[in-house]
Amino acid sequence: MLTVKTSYVGKVCVITLNRPDALNAITLGLLDELNAAFVEAQTSDDVRCIVFQGEGRSFCAGDDLKEQGEVSARGIAAVAAQTAAIQQVTQGIMFGPKPVIGAIEGWAVGAGLSWTLNCDLTVWGESAKGFFPEIGYGTFVSGGATYLLPACVGPMRASDIMLSSRKMNAAELCHLGWATHIAPDGEALVKAMELAAEIAAKPENAVMWTKRALRDPVKGMLLAAMANESAACLDACTPETLARMQDGLKRGSAQ
After folding, report:
1. Which residue, 39, 4, 8, is CA-closest to 24?
2. By Cβ atoms counted within 10 A, which residue in 97, 137, 201, 202 is the most buried?
3. What DSSP string runs through the chain?
């Protein structure tokens, strides 16, 4: 079964994470399929806007801890390849010419939450929540969050959000300027598709240049932040981190 689905409605491409039974947790296979989907959508002449969502009850529950533990156990090279694939998703969202609208229901966790920061617009279901659990495991955030989050909410709030791993609801995210729209639960995709259709109907070059003008000035700083994130993820590849992940997996299985 494909872990990422792609569909089309007019000039809108819908990219859907498709591991609903695992709350769309991230695996290496999912990353490969997701990167391929963004390349296809961003380079297609038939696509004007992209909607990014998760199938089922959550957008993305972050790393699949079982597979993450296996990757970490294989050592630095495996972690480096995985981290590069995660960071490539960010580049596919942010530096392609087509706007990306996130439709967020349920949980957005870890790298999944970072991907919501990468989007041009986001629509959150009113009960949706997000948090960064990485520091508690001894790992590190990704997706350019170390640059994008302080730019969005300020450096002190960014420190609080990352270091505390506290859970934030859609209302707080909207107040912080992180969520651009809130929809009733179950209707985030409907609202995102409405916004995407409006954008897709606008002159293509004007939309493309607007995205480029907003993204290009920060590209160098964002890539530098992502390089630091990747280095921190490699530094976190230790037996202690692996043990924390295994403990988290056991606690999750017991719930």
Report:
1. 4
2. 137
3. --SEEEEEETTEEEEEE--GGGTT-B-HHHHHHHHHHHHHHHH-TT-SEEEEEESTT-SB--B-HHHHHHHHHH-HHHHHHHHHHHHHHHHHHHSSSS-EEEEE-SEEETHHHHHHHHSSEEEEETT-EEE--HHHHT----TTHHHHHHHHH-HHHHHHHHHH---EEHHHHHHTTS-SEEE-TT-HHHHHHHHHHHHHTS-HHHHHHHHHHHHHHHHHHHHHHHHHHHHHHHHT-SHHHHHHHHHHHHHHHH-
Give pLDDT tens digits for 32-87.
999 999 999 999 999 999 999 999 999 999 999 888 878 877 888 988 999 999 99
**By C-alpha distance, which of 124, 117, 118, 214 is closest to 161?**
117
By DSSP bridging, strand 168-169 and strand 129-131 are antiparallel
